[in-house]
Amino acid sequence: MSDAAFDPATDDARAVADDLVAELREARDALDRARDRVDEVGESELQAVADAYDDLTTLFDRYEEEVTGDGDFKTFIEFQSQIAAITEELPEDVRHREVFEEVDDLLQQRRLTESDWRKVRSALEPVRADVSRLDDRDEARERYEDARFSAERRIDDLADRIADLEDLRRLGDADLDAPTERLRDPIEAYNDRVADAFAAFRTSASARDLLAFVAKTDAYPLVPFESPPDDLREYVETRAAGEESVGQLLEYAEYSKSKLDHYVGDPDALKRNVSTRRTYLRRLDAEPLTVDWPPVEAETLRYRARELTSVVARFADEVEGGEAALVALRDVRDLPRETDYERLRNSAQARAQLGSDERERLASGDVADELAACRDAKERLEDALGEYPAV
Predict the structure, then answer these.
(1) Bridge partners of 112?
(2) Which of 12, 77, 16, 4 is nearest to 381 (CA)?
(3) How far is it, in rounded angstroms, from Cα 135 to Cα 141?
(4) CA-to-CA distance for 63 and 60, rounded, in angstroms?
(5) Fewer Cβ close by (within 10 Å): the C or N end of the chain?
(6) Which UniProt key words apply to this protein (predicted)?
(7) By the 8 A CB rule, do 255 and 243 touch?
(8) Count of CB atoms within 10 A of residue 381's CB?
């Protein structure tokens, strides 16, 4: 079964697992047979034959066309000398030595024809059969490794699907009548206030101070501002225009160079460093400071509120509404302690994420059936990988 066909959300999980286990078993059986064929002769003996055969066929590929019929005499002698050298260097006890000697004799003629080449290839059939033992083993090993990889990837897909189904079932158990406004109202109040406070900060602060603030948030991974581009940061730190607000710089970026000449000392530098970063500057808003709805799990909210408090405090004293935003953030931070947080959160998530199809599947038992099938399939594949280990 093709990897591209795997879709745990729609596949018959058990049937797909059975197919993969069957392929794994067949691939391992084929590998064992191929190994036995190599062991019948011996790895080192077969490798010696394969090396000599590779040397011969490399010469054939290079010279056959040139030495057949009325070719260049010098090239012909060169070819025959190299063929003779391969035969002379073979160990006395090498497997099929008589075949290599026969081939040498066939090629040491005054003139080679298409018929001679057919005789050479016919004589080499036993050698090719031995070389194929190694090739077949390599192909069988690759098939087996591919079968294991497909099973491993399917296990990963099933693990993701199981997690999704468990979340879906958890949401299905949620109390849809729970008073989620107990969480929503404080979060919305904080988001509104921090948006207003940051807008005021963006308007009043110099571009230099604003970008310095954003750069410092790199130390807070749960406050996902995008770091200022290096060239823009350097420009606002080293040029007088950096003392203007971001809004003013964006306005300057729309001016022609001749008009800019009346406002900044180096219009080219502003065009080069600000005009090319207009998208970044326009998108610089309060979104990284807001709290998502539906809310995250309690522990994550606590950590995020702690980081947000440190970040918002950096500009709260400088703008109207900054302190109000911090007070509202404290209310959000306290929600896990002061409310039945998980029940309300589950209800909020269920309302946001459960559509009619999901609710119907939960009610009919389809979700429970699929979850059981995915768990069984995953366990079956894990057992199979234990039974058929890596080689």
Answers:
(1) 68
(2) 16
(3) 10
(4) 5
(5) C
(6) Coiled coil
(7) no
(8) 23
The residue type found at 58 is T
How many beta carbons lie within 10 A of that of residue 236, not counting itself?
A: 24
C-alpha 39/C-alpha 164 separation (Å) is: 48
Q: What's the CA gap between 296 and 290, in Å, rounded?
A: 12
**Contact assessment for residue 326 and residue 313, using Cβ atoms and an 8 Å cutoff:** yes
d(CA 7, CA 12): 9
Report the candidate in 301, 278, 286, 285 with the shortest Cα–Cα distance to residue 348.
301
Strand partners, 68: 112
Q: What is d(CA 270, CA 391) in angstroms, rounded to the nearest whole number?
A: 61
Residue 368 token pair: 């429970």
State how far the Cα of 191 lies from the Cα of 32, in Å rounded to an integer: 64
Q: Is 55 exposed, middle or buried (0-12, 13-18, 19+ CB in 10 A)?
A: middle
The neighbour count for residue 72, using CB atoms within 10 Å, is: 11
Q: Write the CA distances from 78 to 75, 85, 86, 107, 166, integer angstroms.
A: 5, 11, 13, 12, 73
* Tally of CA atoms within 13 A in the half-sphere of 130 that contains its CB: 24
Do 72 and 111 form a contact (C-beta atoms < 8 A)? no
